[in-house]
Specification:
The complex is a heterodimer. Chain A is mostly helical. Chain A has helices at residues 2-16, 42-55. Chain A starts with a helix and ends in a 17-residue tail after the last helix. The chains are: A mainly alpha, B mainly beta.
């Protein structure tokens, strides 16, 4: 539990510093880049998530259940 | 107003209209595309030879195909097809060696199986929000899963987006060789998952996503292919009939224009009603190079604590109501390094990637090393093609 507390404290400090500055629509060119997407390669993300769901006891796909047994 | 300045104004207005919807500019409004990936997942042999059974662990060859296309001005449809061919042996149970330490017994017969999955997702951009739905079906010889999902998102301000998701999966397992090995004949598992996330634009180069996911499963949650040595007899793997999981997600993206690259940092904190807790930290650097080359190196660290009922084996009569020697429920960790190389040729982009994962002691969690823990290498290669 000690590790969780440390991590949560660090996250709280980081998020407190996440104050945003207003960004106009025409200033969002960088944010629209392919490499700024949260999942630039959906097929790779799906493959990795299925592998980790099958081989790790605590991993799973964000927002989607199902996808196979994961036995063995 | 000159014709030239009028045209420039029209372009600016069009760009503004395209970007004024979701604050996190994603792949909305893009044309149709198709993608294909071939994957090859290959597990290392055990660090120590198994007490019995084959030492040739799992190998999975995967074919993935994806079509993503606009349907009119506001709708999109995505279809994914997956085929997996699996072979090899897997950990069966643990048994005390001459020193009383756990030794792994693997399945003897070589497993050969295939899995097919089809998934379709639809989304619609409305005046002030986005609505989506998905359906998927996955079939193996002994396992069938049907899943439905709904998601909804809307801006909460100039720099903040809200996203909500709900999904449900109904799974049925019919183990092979049930009579020969005393396995159950068939069972059902239901899983419901809810997700809430906020995406925030921090500045012109930075955006962050915070998410919380809750998942509840009930039904048959044990693994019918695993056994547990109870000191004087063998028992079936027995886990609780319900499991509630919670995960906190943080994903941060920052572009560096001078370096023509972007940094991705992801963190996931997870815990569940079985006592399993985990931390996952992942970092990737997306580097654009000359001549349309891209390099994406990455590193991932995973650390997990053991389930409350995990044990390699027990003394005679000491096994509790719930017991499992599945290596995935033991304290374990891993470090992996990956590299993707991408090269664009007009509308085509070729992709080759490799990830090497090594099992290691988990940082921050105590627990004995499980002899079945896995290290692996995973390759993938394929292409993306954009129609416009």
């Amino acid at each position: 539990m000690r590790l969780e507390r440390i991590v949560l404290c660090v996250l709280a400090v980081l998020l407190a510093g996440c104050a945003s500055t207003p960004v106009q629509p025409w200033e969002r060119g960088r944010l629209a880049r392919w490499d700024m997407r949260f999942d630039p390669d959906p097929l790779k993300a799906g493959l990795k998530e299925h592998t980790r769901f099958s081989k790790e006891g605590s991993s799973g796909r964000v927002g989607a259940a199902g996808g196979g047994c994961g036995c063995n | 107003m000159s014709e030239k300045s009028s045209s420039l104004l029209a372009q600016l207005l069009a760009a503004t209209a395209a970007l004024a919807g979701p604050v996190a500019a994603q792949d909305t409004g893009a044309g149709a595309s198709v993608s294909y990936r071939h994957g090859d997942y290959d597990e290392d042999a055990l660090a120590e030879a198994p007490l019995d059974g084959s030492d040739r662990r799992y190998r999975v060859r995967t074919e993935q195909f994806r079509l993503d296309t606009p349907l009119g001005a506001r709708d999109r449809l995505g279809v994914e097809l997956t085929h997996e061919a699996m072979s090899g042996s897997s950990p069966w149970f643990q048994f005390p060696d001459a020193n009383g330490d756990p030794a792994q017994v693997m399945s003897g017969a070589t497993i050969r199986e295939t899995r097919r999955e089809v998934r379709a997702a639809w989304s619609r951009e409305r005046e002030s929000d986005t609505l989506g739905a998905s359906v998927s079906y996955s079939a193996e010889d002994d396992y069938h899963a049907t899943a439905l999902g709904l998601d909804w998102g809307r801006p909460l301000g100039e720099s903040l987006d809200l996203g909500l998701g709900l999904s449900f999966s109904h799974d049925r397992i019919d183990p092979t060789d049930a009579a020969q090995f005393g396995r159950i004949d068939g069972a059902i598992k239901n899983t419901t998952s809810a997700y809430a996330g906020l995406t925030q634009v921090l500045d012109r180069s930075t955006q962050v996503q915070y998410g919380l996911q809750l998942t509840h499963s009930d039904g048959y949650l044990s693994d019918p292919y695993k056994r547990f040595y109870g000191g004087d007899r063998f028992l079936a793997d027995a886990r609780p009939g319900t499991r509630t999981q919670a995960a906190l997600l943080l994903r941060w993206r920052r572009a560096w224009v001078e370096a023509d690259g972007a940094l991705h940092l992801d963190y996931r904190l997870a815990g569940d009603s079985w006592g399993v807790r985990s931390h996952t930290v992942e970092a990737s650097w997306y580097q654009q190079l000359a001549d349309d080359w891209r390099l994406v190196p990455g590193v991932r660290v995973y650390a997990q604590g053991a389930a409350d009922f995990y044990a390699p084996f027990s003394a005679p009569g000491a096994a509790g109501r719930h017991h499992s020697s599945d290596y995935r429920l033991a304290a374990n960790g891993s470090v992996s390094f990956s590299l993707d190389v991408r090269r664009a040729f007009g509308r085509w982009e070729l992709v080759v990637g490799v990830e090497r994962l090594r099992a290691r002691d988990p940082i921050g969690f105590a627990g004995d090393e499980d002899p079945g823990r896995v290290s692996y290498t995973q390759w993938m290669a394929g292409f993306d093609y954009r129609f416009e």
